[in-house]
Design goal:
alpha/beta; Rossmann fold; 8-stranded mixed β-sheet; 8 strands
């Protein structure tokens, strides 16, 4: 994030629960939705993007339910639906009729679900290695197994988090500074989060139904979704399968796909300059990418 970018911080009530968000810039609204890894938060996940986007847009960066300074309560029977409801409620509180949505992983699934439920509230979509894409087709990746296992076994630890980030989240683990891992680890051991982890394997008698709800490629509305969509995927993503990129491209009527080499699951951080350029082009009024 540019040192000249000024962020304002706010907490509002959405459906009776506190939701924290940071904001910068003016113009059309763009909401950045972060991923679901341990200790994630909006500003930390998009630290290399907020400044570039805020030069052109009103950038709103919430902490998703279960993370950061927002409520720790999340509907585990329909996680993506609950997240979509919360973000739509945030737009209502802020008086925003329509916003562009940018979502990475967990946040990508939330963005896509919101567009499916309320396409008129969404302008354009940018989905980076989104969750919920073909999740009922084949076994989970090693990265997802590491993610789901973080709070299991002997519980969370810095070593577990470092292994997840350096091995699975990014292509070049050595590029991740130690202080980033330290900050995320401290956030991940919030007692409320440890007692009720936001990202977990569905369990119980309704687990199968929850899994099917979470596979957004099985939603028949996807084939008719009108919103222009830019799908970004790292070829070396070890969390969400890169095959999801072509799957979305061939299913959605107004999708474009950009895949990059030497890139893992965190494109907005690993390839920040390219990411910022692609997003600004896609969201611009004279976009060469968006079919409108």
């Amino acid at each position: 994030m540019s040192s000249t970018t000024t962020l304002s911080e706010h907490t509002v009530t959405v459906d009776g629960r506190p939701i924290f968000y940071a904001e910068a810039g003016t113009g059309p609204a763009v909401v950045l939705l972060h991923g679901g890894g341990p200790g994630a938060s909006g500003v930390s996940n998009y630290s290399r993007n907020i400044g570039a986007l805020a030069a052109h847009f009103r950038v709103i960066v919430p902490d998703m339910p279960g993370y950061g300074r927002s409520t720790k309560k999340l509907d585990q029977s329909d996680p993506f639906g609950g997240l979509a409801d919360t973000i739509r409620g945030l737009l209502d509180v802020l008086g925003i009729d329509t916003a562009h949505l940018i979502g990475n992983s967990y946040g990508g699934a939330a963005a896509l679900r919101l567009a499916l439920d309320s396409p008129h509230r969404v302008g354009r979509l940018v989905l980076m290695g989104p969750g919920g894409i073909g999740t009922t087709r084949g076994l989970p990746t090693a990265g997802l197994n590491s993610l789901f296992g973080y709070y299991g076994g002997d519980g969370p630890s810095r070593a577990k988090l470092e292994a997840f980030i350096r091995t699975y989240l990014v292509y070049d683990g050595a590029a991740v500074p130690d202080d980033l891992i330290d900050v995320r680890y401290q956030a991940s051991i919030d007692p409320d989060v440890v007692a009720n982890p936001p990202l977990r394997r569905p369990s119980g008698p309704l687990a199968l139904r929850t899994l099917w709800r979470m596979d957004l490629t099985r939603d028949p509305r996807l084939k008719a979704l009108p919103n222009p969509t830019l799908v970004l995927w790292g070829r070396d993503d070890k969390v969400n399968k890169p095959a999801g990129g072509p799957l979305l491209l061939n299913t959605m009527p107004n999708a474009e796909l950009v895949m990059t080499s030497h890139t893992g699951h965190w494109m907005q951080w690993e390839r920040a300059e390219l990411f910022n350029q692609l997003v600004l082009d896609f969201l611009g009024s004279d976009s060469r990418l968006a079919h409108v």
